[in-house]
Amino acid sequence: MIATLEQPQPIETEISTQIVASLEGVNKNYGSVRALRGVDFRVRAGEVVALLGPNGAGKTTAVKLLLGLMQPDSGRVRVLGGDPTNPENRMRTGAMLQVGRVPETLRVREHIDLFSTYYPKPLPLVEIMAAAGLEKLGERKFGDLSGGQRQRVLFALAICGDPDLLFLDEPTVGLDVEARRMLWDEIRRMVERGKTVLLTTHYLQEADALADRIAVIHEGEIIAHGTPAEIKAKTSGKRIRCITSLGISSLREISGVTAVKQDRDAVEIHGVEAEPIVRELLARDATLSGLEVSSAGLEEAFLALTHEGAQNGTQSK
Amino acid sequence: MSTATIALGNQRIERSPGHIAAIYLKEMKYEFLKNLRLRMYTASVLSFPIMFYVLFGLVLNAHQTIGGTGVPMYLIATYGTFGVMGASLFGTAAGLASDRGLGWLQVKRASPMPPFAYFVAKVVTSMIFSTIIVLALFALGIALGGVRMPVVDFVRLLGTLAAGSLPFSAMGLAVGYFTGPNSAPATINLIYLPMSFCSGLWVPFMFLPKIVQKIALALPPYHLSQLALGIVGAGNHESSTTHWEVLAAFTMICLGVARIGFQRDQEKMYG
Q1: Residue-wise pLDDT tens digits, B50-76
Q2: B12 touches A at CB < 8 Å
Q3: How close is the nearest chain B Cα to the Cα of A194, in Å?
Q4: What is the per-residue DSSP string for A236-277?
Q5: Using CB atoms within 10 A of its CB, is residue A252 exposed (0-12), middle (13-18) or buried (19+)?
Q6: Contact with chain A for residue B16, Cβ under 8 A
Q7: Terminus of chain A with fewer CB atoms < 10 Å: N or C?
C-alpha cells in the first residue's frame, strides 16, 4: 500500500477518464526562487483534487498558472483542452484567489451582479447568495464585512457563472469552524452537480474531508499523491527515537521506514508500524540506547512526509 | 472512476455584442458608484476645485477682471482644468495601483471580463466626474457670479474640459502601473499640485514668474487651460491646434508607458 506511494508519478492508468486541467513538467522560477520544479499534475472531470502543502510550497503559483495569470518557464499548462488564457475557457472556470483588498465601497450584491454579468449563463442571484451564505448581507458594503464574510463573497464570485471547473486557492483561510463546514458542504454540492474542483489548502483535515485525490506539494515539488486514505496512512505513522551507531542511509534502507532525521545526538525515524522497525534496529545495533516510540501527530507526520520529499529530492540530483 | 464528463476543446461560447455592451456599462456603473462612495475621492477631487472657486471666484474677486474677462468666468476655465486633472489622475491611478498591488486585478483577470472593459470603465468614469465638476462650477458661476455666455461657448467649454480628461486619465494609468497601492496617491499629488501651479491654474498665468511661464509651455494642464481660456476670451492667443496636438501627443506617450507597465505585469505577476 505504501510502496505505491513512494515516488510521485504521473497518473497514466486511467486514460479513459477525461483530464480537464493539467500541469506537465512545469517549472516556474521567481528570480532565484524555484517556485515549481518539474510539476506533473492532473485534474480529471468531476473530481475534487486538493493540493496540500505548507505556505510557500508553490500552491498559489500552480493555481495562477492554471488560471493563465502567469506563464511557466518550461512545461505545459492545459485547461479544458486548451490554453488557460483562452477567453472561452474563462467563461467556464471560476476562481477564488487570495486578495489583499477588494473594492470596499461596493455592496455584496453589486459585486456579485457585476461578476455574474461576465458569464454567458450565470446562476440566479438568490441562488448564489444562498450558496455562499450571504442572504442577509446583500446590502452590506464589502468594507463592512468580517474576514469570514469576505471569503464567502469571494467564493460567491467564483461560483456565480456556474462554471464547470472551479479553482479555490486556500478557500477556508480565516474562516471559523462553522463557516468552514458550510463552505465544505457547498463545495460538495458543486461536485454533485458535476463540477470539477481544484483546491489548495494547508490543512490535511480539509483535504481529507473534500478531496478524491490529494497531491502533497513541498518546496515546489509534488512529493506524494494518492487518495486521502493513502496519504493518511503515509502520514499517520509512528515516531521512533533512539541513539544508534547506524548511519542515516542504512537506517533508510530498513523496510517500513518513511523518514529519518538527525536530532542532536539521536535519530528520529518515522515509519508506519513501529514493531518491525524496532526489531530490525535492535538486531543490527547491539549498542542502541535511549529508545522511545510515540505516535506521530498529524502535523508532525505531515512534516515527516515533506522532509522525506526534500531528501528524495536531494538524492535524485 | 468518475462518470462526469466535461466538453473539452474550443467550445463556441460567444457573448452577443449586446451582452458585451452590457458588461462595459455595468463595469462603468460600478466604477462610478465605487468612486462616488469613496470619501477620499469625492472629498478631495470634487470638493477642492469647487471650494477654491467659491472662495476666490465668488467671495473674494467676483467683480474684478483678468485681461478683460470677469474673474468668475476666468476661473471656471482654470479651476475646471484643475478639477478635471484631479478627477482623472486620482480616478485612474489610485484604483489601478491598489487593484494591481493587492490582488484584485488578478481576480478580475481570471474572470471572463473583457480586459479592456476595466480600463474603459476607469477612463469613462473619470470623464463623468470631470464633467460633474465643470457643471458644478458653471452652476455656481451662473447663479452667484453673474456668469453669462452663449450656449455654443458653454457647450464648447464643457466639451473641451471633458475631452481634456483623456490625457490625464492616460497619465493616471501610466502612474498606476509604476506605483504601489500606498505610494500612488502621494505620487499623484507630487505631479498634480506643482503642475497646477506652474500651468497657471491657481495664479493667473500672466502673474507667474517668467521662468515658470517658460516651464508651463511643457505642461499638459497649461495647454488644456489655454484651450478653455481661449473660449472665454482670455487665452494667450496661441494656436489651439498646437494645444490639441500637444495634448494628443502627451496622451499617446502616457498610453505607451502604461502599455509597458501592462506588459511588465503580464510577464511577472509576482511581488
Answers
A1: 999 998 888 887 778 887 788 889 999
A2: yes
A3: 6
A4: S-EEEEEE-SS-HHHHHHSTTEEEEEEETTEEEEEES-HHHH
A5: middle
A6: no
A7: C
Strand segments (E) across A137-265: 165-169, 196-201, 213-218, 221-226, 238-243, 257-263
Is A103–B34 a contact, with Cβ atoms under 8 angstroms apart? yes
Contacts A82 to B, Cβ<8 Å = 8-10
Confidence of residue A297 (pLDDT cuts 50, 70, 90): low
**Which residue of chain B is at minimal alpha-carbon distance from A70?**
B269
Residue B46 lies in a domain: yes
Do residues B92 and B126 make contact, with C-beta atoms less than 8 angstroms apart? Answer: yes
C-alpha closest to that of A296 among A273, A276, A270, A278 = A270
**Domains of chain A listed by start with CATH number:** 3-232 (3.40.50.300), 237-296 (3.30.70)
| B1 in a structural domain | no
Give residue-wise pLDDT tens across range A30-71: 888 888 888 998 999 889 999 998 888 888 999 999 999 888
Residue A248: pLDDT over 90: no
Residue B3 within any structural domain of the chain: no
Q: Give the domain extent around B232.
A: 22-267
Taking the Cβ of residue A143 and every Cβ of chain B, the question of whether any pair is shorter than 8 Å is answered with: no
| Residue closest to B76 by CA, chosen among B100, B97, B57, B103 | B57
Smallest Cβ–Cβ distance between B13 and the set A88, A103, A115 belongs to A88
Q: Tell me the C-alpha to C-alpha distance, in Å, between residue B16 and each of A57, B23, B25.
A: 42, 11, 14
In a domain, B157, yes or no: yes
Domain count, chain B: 1
Task: With CB atoms and an 8 Å threshold, state whether A196 touches B112.
Answer: no
